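Question (not urgent): is this output format expected?
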Amino acid sequence: MNVRPLGLRAGAVAKAPEAPGPDAEEGSPQPPSRRLRGRWMWLAVAVGPGLMVMLADTDAGSVVTAAQSGARFGYRLLPLEVLLIPVLYLVMELTVRLGLTTGKGHAELIKARFGRGWAVFSVGILLVTSVGALVTEFAGIAGVGSIVGLPPQLIVPGAAILLLLVVVSGSYRRVELIGIGLGLFELAFLVAAIRAHPDPGSLAGSLRLGQPLGNSAYLALVAANVGAVVMPWMIFYQQAAILDKGITVRDLRFARINTAIGAVVTQVIMIAVLVATGASLFHRHAGSLNTVAQISTALTSSLGAAGGRLAFSMGVAGAALVAALVVSLGAAWAFAEVAGKPRSLNRKFRQEPLFYGVFTGAVGLSAVLVLSSGSLVGLAIAVEVLNALLLPIVLIFLIVLAWTVLPAPYRLRLWEKVVLLFVTAAVIGMGATLAITSL
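Got this back:
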């Protein structure tokens, strides 16, 4: 990787911006958040991007990955879900730090630091994972439609049109509020977990369970769960979204709080899905779980026909819609950054044709592809495994940027460097093990 001097505008990195507290002098330039009084209002300004990207993290593919994990191996993967919380926070907090201190999106920063070729390469990885993720989102929506009696030919195009209308007819704030509102439907999975009546002793005993590391199916699910916790499009989305919203480095502390809350929430949702299926389906013959409808039907024995289907349908629909927004917007932002074109949800379609064009193309292509999709469970796990295989490349870019670009007050501490290197090495080793096992 040929690293060249970073050509940032107006010394965005060479001279770090100061980070005064809430009581900055009245005469100093004030970002949008300073016009709001009170710490809670200030937190509300920074809360959006991190929470929305974390709710999108528990997308349709992640949900079926967690469901398959619980159905096949009970609570054995529960400790892994807990361990992934600090990993998720560390990576996404670093993304926030890079965005706020440099004033650049992730693809734009790679282009400035390493050159256009490496930026195109990174966006290529993003597009591959984004198309795979979008296909699983629309497949999840199609599965929800089958539960309520709507054919895929009706509900998939309807969902695509809804996403397009949300994005092209509003502002960043409106898109974010709608996205978070949709994502909150994922809390229905908590209801599903409670109604499954899991045995507290078995949950606690999951920490003492042996791990079947010689089982290739188990290793594939381990890799899939790791791939589900940090996905390439999350990094590109959050770094661009915080800038489009107008958040500055002065809001870093609140953005960190938001990121920590989001990391806990998304993994709690994953745990809820795993617990619901582990309590209901493990040690039982649930049959082949190839669609959202089949997973929902398999849960009805313990959750009840109405309660189980309603909770699971609401959760999958909310997860798929907010994730589809985040994935497609992340790809559009990154593509426009590399091309050097304007990109903002606060401007109209005619002012940002490339940005909105990539968004529209990604949504439309994925909606068409999903109508020919077979097994959602198999597709979702394959996409998450692909994320696990490509994630090391994204993490290496992130680490090198953090190592070389962050200004002095925000540089990585020694323990952060050690943990990031360990996580990257573990992900690389897991990907290599998975590839060998698959072969």
